[in-house]
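Study this fold:
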Amino acid sequence: MDRAIWHFCRGLAFAARGNPAAAEAEKSELDALAQSGEAKELNEPTFPATDTLTIASHWLAGKVAGARGDSRSMISQLEAAAKAMDEMPYMEPAYWPFPVRPTLGAAFLRSGDPKEAERVFREDLKQWPRNAWGLFGLEQTLRQQGRPQNAESVHREFLETWKYADVKLELDHF
C-alpha cells in the first residue's frame, strides 16, 4: 500500500508540473501494484485495499488526462474516483480520507462549466461539512457565475475555516 500511494503522489506531482508521460508511468506502477496478488491478499472486510487503490488510480488517470489537455477524460476519470469513494464502506477514519470532489469541481471550472462545478462542490460540502477546499471551490464557482454576494458569504465561511492554515489556496492545488 505504501508503495502504491507513493506512486500516486509522484504521479500527481508530475501531472501538476506538466509532465504527463512521467505521471502516466507512475500510474502504470500504481495499477500494477493495485492488481497484484499482494494487494489482493490485503483485502478483508476491515480493509478493502484494492477498492481503496481504485480511487487513487482513477484520480491519477484524471490528473494525467488533465495534464494532456483532455478535459472530457479528466472529468470522466475523476467522476469514477468520486463514485468509487462513495461506494467505500463507512469507517472512521475513512479508508480514503481525501475528498475527491474538490478536484472534480476544479476540473469542471477549468473546462468552463461553473454550474456543474457548483453542484459538485455543494455535494462535497454535504459529505464533508466546512471542508475549506470545498468552500474555496464553491466561492470560485459563484464568482465565475457573477454571484458576488453569494461568493462573499462563502468566502467569509472559508476564512473562518482556514484561519489557522499557513497556505494560500489556489485552484491549481486541486
In short: Residues 1-98 form one domain. The chain has two domains: 1-98, 101-174. The longest helix spans residues 49-67.
